[in-house]
Amino acid sequence: MRNCQQQKGIVTLGVLLLLSSLLLILLSLDDIRLASYNFISWRYQYSFQEHFKLQQQALKKADTKCQSLSLNQSEDILPLIFKSEAKKDPLTYKIWCERKKLFKQQPTKSQYAGQLSNYINLDVLNIFKPRLLNTTKLIQRNASPQLYLVRKEQNTLTLEGEHYGIILTEGDLHLIGEGKLYGSVLTQGTLHTANKVKLIYKKNVVLTLMEKYRYWQKAENSLYDLN
Fold it and tell me: Would 204 be classed as within a structural domain?
């Protein structure tokens, strides 16, 4: 009888030890799963922070880097690549720069009545307006080619002497005087010239001004995640 009770005690103890071992194993698995979850969570948070950091850096520097590009590039759209400092598998973002030009195409004649929008990007013209010479009289000869703007409400320009440049007019234009213009005239409306006004096409003047009035900028919505 006593031996039977001892055997039952041993069995019970064995069962308890087995259950304790199973419980420890389960607890260990839970710890492993928790550690794995914590690691994944940390990696995700770190990756998000690195992505955000590089994205903000790219957006902050893109304007300056685009504006510093050479105007003599053969392409009108160029990419900028930004990489994180990580040595292994660095994050990469790309931003596009676009070159904006005042002239859509090269004028090849001395005058274009009613064709201003065919040769000039009007949205870019609004940006350059503060830099253009807005005048109603061209009297003194200019040392270098100039781009002149005659606003719609003015419509009359007096031309005396010799001048090198391009005249842009938002409306009709009446050219009066006895001067000469070497370059081209582009109007949105009609063009009337006095008998003694001479308009002479000058290719090198046109090309000089086409190259002068252009610039680089960051293209809108052009940030791409390459990861």
Answer: yes
Query: pTM value?
Result: 0.72
Domain that holds residue 116: 111-214
Considering only 26-35, 115-124, 205-214, which range has the smallest mean pLDDT? 26-35
Tell which residue, 193, 205, 188, has the closest CA to residue 119: 188
Please give the backbone phi and psi of residue 146, each rounded to the nearest 5 degrees, phi first: -125, 155
Identify the helix (H) or strand (E) that includes residue 182.
Answer: strand 180-187
The string of pLDDT tens digits covering residues 32-69 is 665 565 556 656 666 667 778 888 888 888 889 999 99
Task: DSSP for 71-122, please give it.
Answer: TT-S-SEEEEEEE-S-SSS--EEEEEEEEEESBSS---SSEETT-HHHHB-H
Residue 14's region, left for phi above 0, alpha for psi from -120 to 50, else beta, is alpha
Assess if residue 223 is contained within a domain. Answer: no
Q: In the chain, which residue ranges form alpha helices assigned H by DSSP?
A: 2-67, 116-119, 122-128, 203-212
Domain count, the chain: 1
Q: Name which residue leads in pLDDT, 64 or 221.
A: 64
Collapsed DSSP state (helix, strand, coil) of residue 20? helix
Residue type, 48: F
